[in-house]
Amino acid sequence: MHGKLYLCATPIGNLEDITYRVVRILSEVDLIAAEDTRNSIKLLNHFEIETPMTSYHEHNKMVKGEVLVQKLLAGDSIALITDAGTPGISDPGEELVKMCYEEGIEVTSLPGAVACITALTISGLPTRRFAFEAFLPSDKKLRKTILTELANETRTIVLYEAPHRLVKTLKELLENLGERQVSVCRELTKRYETVVRLPLSRMIEYYQENAVKGECVIVIEGKSHEEITLEKQQVWLDISVEEHLQRYLDKGIDKKEAMKVVAKDRGVSKREIYNQVNVK
User: Fold this and answer.
1) Residues 182-201: what's their mean pLDDT?
2) Domain count, the chain
3) What is the pLDDT of residues 51-95, one digit of tens each?
4) Which of 46, 45, 71, 108 is nearest to 54 (CA)?
5) pTM
6) How far apart are CA 200 and CA 202, in angstroms?
């Protein structure tokens, strides 16, 4: 019988946020794979868990992943934990899960704390639809590409950022996304948890004047559908009605139908377009 991989969510700050189930599983498995054993030993000691640990992180995920898979195939049960939060979210855990499925190994997740959801729920911004981007890439070209894509994102956007890069990232967001309402959540679930909610330009000023401590989650207002519609209409308003109509006629669209589409593009009534075009 193969062993099972348990993805165990650990506290993102307050140790009381761990679940009874996670504590039990961490005590029962044969091995705990931890992102940083030096950090995780504090958690295990607090809950008097004596299960052996091994490291599994970004720099050894492929080699160590193979080792862990072989242990699982041999029947060992393994719990995967990250430094804080849910494994597989913005960490190498996703690679181990993929490797397990390729070998037919059962994987289960023990839910618990996750910073992006915690921040989203207290941000004061819409929560029904959101886009999670984790940390923006350090590669300048790829970073610019993603920021350009986010500029037209209508869902609430959630990003992670280190304190020493917060102001720089906020400036990039303002430059690429324009003025938006934003919430910066720091030290989540800890004693000095803070949520600052301001327009982007004012948020930059705030953190230029106030020290930033602790990991940050940036929650950004999505672009409104009304704003996107107006931008699309503006593109069409830069050309004449006749040119606009001709583009659809060149695609083989019937003239009457083309005028309906032109009216919709420009945000005006069909009658207004009919009056501007010589219908024969």
Assistant:
1) 95
2) 3
3) 999 999 999 999 999 999 999 999 999 999 998 999 998 889 999
4) 71
5) 0.79
6) 5
Minimal CA–CA distance to 203: which of 191, 223, 218, 187?
218
Same domain, 87 and 34: yes
- Domain of residue 260 covers 226-276
The continuous run of DSSP H or E covering 156 comes out as strand 156-161
| pLDDT of 280 over the 50 cut | no
Report the candidate in 186, 193, 192, 194 with the shortest Cα–Cα distance to residue 162: 186
Q: What is the 3-state secondary structure (H, E, C) of 85-106?
A: ECCCCCCCHHHHHHHHHHCCCE
Please say whether the beta carbons of 41 and 10 come within 8 A: no
Domain edge (last residue) among 113, 147, 180: 113
| pLDDT class of 124 with cuts at 50, 70, 90 | very high
Supply the CATH number for residue 136's domain. Answer: 3.30.950.10
239 and 208 in a common domain: no
Between the alpha carbon of residue 121 and those of residues 157, 161, 169, 215, 280, the distances in Å are 12, 18, 22, 17, 58
